[in-house]
Amino acid sequence: MAYEALYTRGRPKNFAQLIGQEHISNALTRAVISKRLSHAYLLVGTRGTGKTSTARLLAKAMNCEKVLAGKVSAAKDIPCNECASCKSIDSSPDNVEFDAASNRSVDDVARLLSTAYMAPLQSRVKTFIIDEVHMLSNEAINSILKLIEEPPPNVAFFLATTEINKVPMTIRSRCQVLNFRLIPQETIAAHLQDMAKILAIELENDAAKKIARLAEGSMRDALTYLDQCYAMADKKITLADVNETLGLVSDADLDEIISAVQSQNRAEVGRAINHAFRSGLSSISIAEALITRLRDIEFENLRGDISDLDNFVDAVRKAILEMQGSGVPDIILEMTLMKLAAPKIISATVAQPIAQPKPAPPPKIEVPATETITPPIEKIETAKVFTGNFDADKKFFLSIVSELGQTRRTLAMSMKVANFDRFSDGIIKLKFQSVGTEEEFNSVHKTELENFIAQKLGHPVKIETAVDTNLPNPNLDRIKAQHRTFVDTAMKTFGADNFE
Ligand SMILES: [Zn+2]
Predict the structure, then answer these.
(1) Domain-wise residue ranges, the chain
(2) What is the CATH number of domain 6-179?
(3) Distance from the CA of 88 to the center of ligand 1, in angstroms?
(4) Average pLDDT of 138-160?
(5) How far is the centre of ligand 1, averaged over its atoms, from the C-alpha of 223 (Å)?
(6) According to the CATH classification, is domain 185-245 in 1.10.630.10?
(7) 250-352: what fold?
(8) Span 196-242, pLDDT tens digits
(9) Residue 80 CA to ligand 1 centre (angstroms)
(10) 319: closest CA among 278, 277, 271, 286?
(11) How far is CA 366 from CA 263, 269, 341, 369, 391, in A?
């Protein structure tokens, strides 16, 4: 029998199992019980956060006999999964589901949508689940708009999108909007442990945490990673297994590089980076992992001079851009780290998890005075206000985010994709790596963050966002690389012919 992917096996069967989206499952449970469902939903959120699963549950619930008979009172019973409708709906012709990102022809989509005007064949409500709805042609969008404005009886639409800003306002305003959040790491890690129990394997806590961190809020990614590790593991999955299977540099290796740079020990930098190269990873993957690790350190540890870490991150980012078109990316990365390890760039020891004896300063390198005094880093005690000084403001902002982390994990996590840009004219300006992350922040988190900061400052504040397309997206390339590694291994294991 074919192996069923964990992501499919782990799919929620009722609203109570909708992990990490309690605000949505609670609201929908109330709506189902009080029979106040809409005929059009717009499900918004990044990939793997449960949009399609929720749409399927809702479609099922709209037809569930127990729900219709008013015999359900809790999320765990919606839908019941036992009645004739629940059992047959997955194969029902009344349940239309398609992905607008796939290459369906315009005619094909038009034909599918036209069936909305025909009465359901078996079910009470005919349901349309359309993934990535923003990819539809204008013509299709107009058909949907018409269907939503003057809905035929017994039809419901579930439109899912990762890019809300590309969905026309006319559609947005006529749908009930459900905003899906990035799923907190602890929630993902806990769910991975549940899945490990089902698979009858042991999953080391650190391994679960690492996978959860990599997944960056996406349960689907987390389960895919776990699946990959499971395929390679025996009875137990350790942190080392995760690193090896997913082709990752370990945090310990990264910390060695960072520590060597910060202690300006160039011999040690050379040794550490060569050690990392031996993992067989591309130098770009290593550089990206370095950025992620530096940001984690910045995020968790605000004692040091933020400007040092920023310099470090900026230099590695620049190196990645150079490496992309170069035949000698290894050398570029190594040279970048060596330059960073020179005293004139990294000026002070940054708060660092690994304590390392500070070596004697390298033989003196004459540095012109103007360069030594890179912006005067007076010791910035964490300020209580924004001052207009970048370093101080960034530090203050990060301290607020860090404080958030104790009580509002989801909001704090959403800030991981935000870069503090500047504070000016009384406005906090943030930059995002992509339109998707910016839009998610604006639609889900912005007001909450403004309120939180306003409470701290005692006066209202405004946040403005922008997209900085110059920021490389470390995640994307890493996932691509991981996928390649996985497919290669699978092909080797099963033989290319058997592997689809
Ligand atoms: Zn049912």
Answers:
(1) 6-179, 185-245, 250-352, 384-469
(2) 3.40.50.300
(3) 10
(4) 93
(5) 27
(6) no
(7) Zinc Finger, Delta Prime; domain 3 (1.20.272)
(8) 998 899 999 999 999 998 888 899 999 999 999 998 888 899 998 99
(9) 4
(10) 286
(11) 18, 21, 15, 9, 27
